[in-house]
Amino acid sequence: MPVFETQVSKQVMSTYLTYLECTACGDRHTPHEVQTVCRSCGKILAARYDLAKAKHEISRKWFRERSPEMWNLMPLLPLENPAHVVSLGELVTPLIRLATLERRLGISRLLIKDESRLPTGSFKARGLAVAVSKAKELGITRVCIPSAGNAAGALAAYAARAGIEAHIFLPEDTPRINISECIASGAQVELVRGTISDAAKAMSERRREHPDWFDVSTMKEPYRLEGKKTMGYELAEQLEWILPDAIVYPAGGGTGLVGMWKAFEEMAELDLIGSKRPRMIAVQSEGCAPIVRAFDQKRRESEFWNNAATIASGLRVPKAFADYLILDILYKSGGHAVAVSDEEIRKAVADVARAEGLYCCPEGAATVVAVEKLLHKNILTAADSVVLWNTAAGTKYAELVERL
Questions:
Q1: pTM for the full model?
Q2: Rg of the chain over CA atoms, in angstroms?
Q3: Is 124-215 assigned to CATH 3.40.225.10?
Q4: Is residue 334 over pLDDT 60?
Q5: pLDDT at position 402, please?
Q6: CA proximity to 227, closest of 341, 53, 76, 377
Q7: Residue 171's closest CA among 201, 203, 193, 202?
Q8: What is the C-alpha to C-alpha distance for residues 231 and 247, in angstroms, rounded to an integer?
Q9: 321: which residues sit within 8 A by CB, 6+ positions away?
Q10: What is the DSSP string of 216-270?
Q11: Which CATH architecture does the domain made up of 95-119+225-401 adopt?
């Protein structure tokens, strides 16, 4: 069996990256220097590419000829030198049809994108692989992050691979496996009482003593988003460039949802897809549902959710920095936002495993509950094609299994 080696290391490839643009005020920033958020308004920066030029190289045929890995999208990722790629083998994740659940729920086509197959066992590997690679390219030697769990494990692993020092701040009730994988990878770990917001505050205080720590928090730098957008490209190719009627996605920080929408916009400019867009549906926990509340109130931003509590640690985000982008996408796509209970999530983890043999994380199981609710409300119909997202391996939540 051949040894895995990401194909970008064997090719001379250039990125079509041209500049970074503020998603709020439009101010442009150079990608050749270390950037965080917009210098003018403090909002999120997004990478922009010369898609008119890229269209001459990138086609559906181009994708068919590439290796089945995340980095096959290199020209539309922000790395300028493939030698800086930090990879642990990020292969394309499977899109699995849930035939038993289709029959049970009464829906014509239900699929799930299983991100548990990625290195570190979650979709966070995508964003952190790209963010750490770009950090390496820019000469960053120390990084830090507040996390609910899976992003911490991914940062620890990729930072170790890159030879970069990692400082990680976690809620003290983070799933044990997330803490263990950070320690095993040599990261410096600090446990904080409270939520990811409290972890972020603790990290900010420590950064006053260590100004050389680069913050890779969700959407506080431009490149995790680029890793997450690869989910959109993969999905489109797997569905032969016809997008589903709806995507049901567990939204904590929401980077994946924003990244997929960015991918769809890029693909349209590249003539890879037509004008059809899925209805984007954000799923949250009833114990922490700031996006759902804001959506129901037709707001453009969310308010901080006090006393956030849920077994789905990835959904325990009291206020997403990208809330204005998430909500804008929900409105533009004719989508929706729905909250589910912890009791429903816990039951769904077992139900999906027994019906389909797929051991989802709580966040992934929440999307199954959401589909049932949305069908009952006629927001989804029996004729819809729907794709769910399982964002991590269920095995990373050992404590939950003990209570199933």
A1: 0.94
A2: 20
A3: no
A4: yes
A5: 61
A6: 76
A7: 193
A8: 12
A9: 44, 217, 218, 219, 220, 253
A10: --TTTSSSHHHHHHHHHHHHHHHTTT---SEEEEE-SS-HHHHHHHHHHHHHHHT
A11: 3-Layer(aba) Sandwich (3.40)
